[in-house]
Amino acid sequence: MYMTASDIHTTGMMARASSTGLLDEDDETYLRYYLIAYWVEATLFGVYWFLYMVAMAIIYKRRAQSQSTPLISIAGNTFLFSLAGLHNGVNVYRLLKIYGSPSGATTSTAVAVSYLRSNKYWDVYIHAILLHFTTWAGDSFIMYRCWILWNRSYKIMLLPLAILMASLGTGITSIYWFKHQDKIDSSVMRYIFRTTIILNLVGNTLTTGLIAYRIWKQHRRSRKAGVHSSSGVDLFTLMRIIIESASIYTLAQLLIIILFFRGHPSTLIVQHASIPVTGIVFVLIVIRAYGASRAPGGGRMTSKFEFPTRLRTSHELGEGDTTDNAQEGTSSSRTLDTS
Which superkingdom heads the taxonomic lineage of this protein's source (predicted)? Predict the structure, then answer.
């Protein structure tokens, strides 16, 4: 999926750069939306913290039951959680810096906004870096899952990878510009920002679509062959879980695009919210897949689903059933992890 990504997170930084003409908003409006963005993100991070703990408990329970979970799943979810936690912590630090000092109560709006928009401070500049890293981490994580699901096919991943590389290019350019705003004209950056947010929406939608299509295709073949999973989550249920979970992040990306093109300051709110939302998407898939597997008829396995071996051979590639398993009609299977 899951979000992103999004270097579309860049749009939040655009709000801070309104003095260069990217967004037209006065100081009071900006500060009001920033405070709302802070509380929305903090609330979502609280939800994310709870879901992350539940997901990790599920993953470690499965490992204790010898149901192997790839370390990349643990590392990926933990990295996204760390980025969200660090960003939320920096936000707290920034507000304390403005209002937590003895003179904080008398800090003028102009002074507060000037600080929040000044990239010469590390805690302001790191905001841009964390936003982009969250996007790239989320996109890489979902692309890895897509690659695994498509039997490690590099051909299938060429377009998603090209989109990610383009996103990296525009994102790095944005990070550079926030420290050197005299090097690139703001009118040029406007197009780079717009390109970035569109790239992230297209990339996320494409990768999620490839995953959903792969599962749907396998589901149809399994039904047609009369093969059903003896345990684990039904493939159609898994496809629905992935699409529904990923749609949360996709919706956030779509909102950012609409709001940014309209020049609305509430872009800042959605952009801040998308940081914990990126991680929430992945832990939701783990939790919901586990819940589906525990439901009546869901099988005894956790968040795994099964691919019949005889449907993953040359027959799956359209060359017919040539393996012994296919000829004998065995029901041997292998599993793929959804956590």
Answer: Eukaryota
* Residue 315 DSSP class: T
Q: Which two tokens stand for residue 6?
A: 């999004």
Cα-Cα-Cα-Cα dihedral of 163, 260, 270, 192, to 10°?
A: 30
**Mean pLDDT, all residues of the chain:** 77
What pLDDT, in 10s, does the model give residues 69-83? Answer: 678 888 999 999 999
Maximum distance among all Cα pairs of the chain, rounded to whole angstroms: 81
Q: How big is the CA angle at 40 (ends 35 and 41), to the nearest 5 degrees? A: 100
- Do residues 67 and 73 touch, judged by C-beta distance below 8 A? no
What does the alpha-carbon distance between residue 258 and residue 277 come to, in Å, rounded to a whole number?
18
* Class of residue 324 by CB neighbours under 10 A (exposed 0-12, middle 13-18, buried 19+): exposed
Lowest mean pLDDT of 116-125, 227-236, 284-293, name the range: 227-236
Q: pLDDT tens-digit profile of 129-161?
A: 998 999 999 999 999 989 998 999 999 999 999
Return the closest-CA partner of residue 244 out of 280, 276, 275.
280
- Distance, in Å, from the CA atom of 23 to the CA atom of 160, rounded to the nearest integer, reads 31
Helix (H, G, I), strand (E, B) or coil at 235: helix
Looking at per-residue pLDDT, the higher value among 12 and 207 belongs to 207
Domain ranges in the chain? 7-305
95 burial (CB, 10 Å; 0-12 / 13-18 / 19+) is: middle
Name the one residue in this structure whose structure tokens are 């589906």: 292
- Do 58 and 302 touch, CB atoms closer than 8 A? yes
Which pLDDT score, from 0 to 100, does residue 15 have?
39
Type of residue at 93: Y
DSSP 188-209: HHHHHHHHHHHHHHHHHHHHHH
